[in-house]
Amino acid sequence: MSFHSVIVLVSYLLASTTALQKFTELYKWSSLDYTFSSDEHKNYALERGEFVPENNLPVGIEVWRNKLFVTVPRWSNGVPSTLNYIPLDVSSTESPKLTPYPNWAYNREGNCDGLTTTYRVKADKCNRLWVLDSGTVGIGNTTKQVCPYAIHVFDLTTDKVLRKYTLRPEDTNANTFIANIAIDIGSKGCDDTFLYASDELGYGLISYSWELNTSWRHTHSFLMPDPLAGDYNIGGINFQWGEEGIFGITLSPITESGFRLLFFHPLASNREFVVSTEILRNPKLTSEEIYHDFVVLSSRGAGGHITAHYMHDDGILYFNLIDRNAVGCWNSRLPYEPKNLGIIEVDDEALIFPSDVKVDSLNNLWVISDRMPIHLLSKLNFNDINFRIFYATIDTVLAGTVCANNIPYTPYGQTNDVSSKVY
């Protein structure tokens, strides 16, 4: 049976009835659990406070073949593993336990050779999993930097570590908080790879070259928050995240110039920005030299906060709209403006804070929702369903939207609206 057939069968067996029109709800949890080696192992972790179920919140996902990766940050005590996966080809429950990746030891808190906290991870076409470890425990005023920021790269075919790279001191500052990365494989192949990381609270953008095995930092005023866009209303809670700068980052396909476009936005903003990776790949350029290479796009309008977005190989951008409990899309063959931003799905129960979105190699769109503001600012009801993972084919989600891929193809870097502003 093919992997695609397995996914279809699993979704048929596990999917519950919801008001969602396009997405299939594949998994759901009231609280998370893990594949402890035995009941004794789990009870030991519970007794010592190494596992506190209510402190475990899933935030990021990635899909590679039969593995669905799920990240759980160590915002409080009792998170036994930050990087985990669900085996899609053997899961037979609607609330599967998470298995630490690559193993328990690598995820042990305090092990600076392994992982402390990670948020969003990326699998690339070279069968590598890229993980940026923040090295932090806690959140906000409780944050402690117990290990340095580091990039971990795994060979997904062997589950072995290919490389660990610790960011240089000059790549970060006292306010640094990094939750998102993007992976840029160039035209020369797997060695021609760069990782970009967004420093949300330190207001920077970091480049790392796989070939050179070094990193550097970019700064720009577009990486900062909009002081008029820091107010949020999500899940019945009004709150302010006014200091949140550059957050979500994603990459276009390779353009005619030979480089990609990096799309990004501050979390406290209703706007999208873009810069060519030709700029980000060059460590010699100064902030003054690159100022005009960063381009601002039209505003999404009120209620346009986005945390995560992902551009597929066909140039269609998928994103969450956290204020609206929604998932949206944009076909980059069209100008970036509100009338061209489509809504794929809205659900005021199932999609409260759709934290992450990804597209897999089989052209399925995946979404995780986790009610994050309720977890952080109030209290989750653990008798209710709090975390959900959905998927649908991209043909299904695009049907009937302005993003439907029926527009004559325009190669990037020629007459495309965005590329014309960048090049």
UniProtKB/TrEMBL annotation:
Protein location: Secreted
Recorded coiled-coil stretches: none
Entry's Gene Ontology cellular component terms: extracellular region
Secreted is among the record's keywords: yes
Keywords: Glycoprotein, Secreted, Signal
Pfam families, A to Z: MRJP (PF03022)
Signal peptide: 1-19
UniProt keyword Amino-acid biosynthesis, yes or no: no
Source domain of life: Eukaryota
Described function: Controls the pigmentation pattern of the adult cuticle and larval mouth parts.
Family listed: Belongs to the major royal jelly protein family.
Name of the protein: Protein yellow
Organism field: Melanaphis sacchari
Gene from which this protein is expressed: y_7
